[in-house]
Amino acid sequence: MKHISIRRIYFPDFVVGKLYINGDYVCRTLELPDRSNAPNVSCVLEGYYPTKINIHYGESSSYEAYELLDTIGRSDIEIHIGNSVEDTKGCILIGMRVDWLNSRVLDSRKAFDRFMKLMNRDEGFVTIKEDIGVRPKPRIKETLKQTIKQLPDHEQLDLIMDNYFNFVSRVVYVTLKAVRRGIAQYNSEKNWWEKWGKRVLRIVESLIIIFAK
Q1: Contacts for 24 with CB less than 8 Å, ≥ 6 apart
Q2: What is the average per-residue pLDDT within 2-15?
Q3: Domain 2-130 belongs to what topology?
Q4: pTM to 2 decimals?
């Protein structure tokens, strides 16, 4: 019997998490945002779910995948391959790492193969709950100084997201989202500064205050 544990972090447009098997880290997860368990548009509720092996029917192929049972108000919730929230109607997608800027998981096939190999067709159950976060590790200021000296690549951004408060993670996400929207707005309208510039500056200033403490 394998225990699959998923620890979520909630964002406005998606939910990311970490997946463990019997306490050992395996990969990242991606789900739809929390919209009160509404079918096809929301992630499933937190809780305990037994699982069984079922056939997942994708657009181009079908393959074995684990299905969550007894999902209240939902059905056909599986752990399967996919990269973005457009690839799911409530199922749990898995990947090796998170592309935070584009709200995706990457190397999904590799993560799925690893997951299935570790499960070894055994029976199992899933527990899903929010990741309450961890306190910053020692020497946080030194780590931050080294990180912000250069634009973070995906590994550095993963480090920030994984090791500091979930609140900071959400602020970083909102900041990046605002910048992306601001650039798009700038390309189409001249009043970008009035609509987005000041908002972005306020968020950046808040980040600076948090990191400086």
Answers
A1: none
A2: 93
A3: L,D-transpeptidase catalytic domain-like (2.40.440)
A4: 0.67
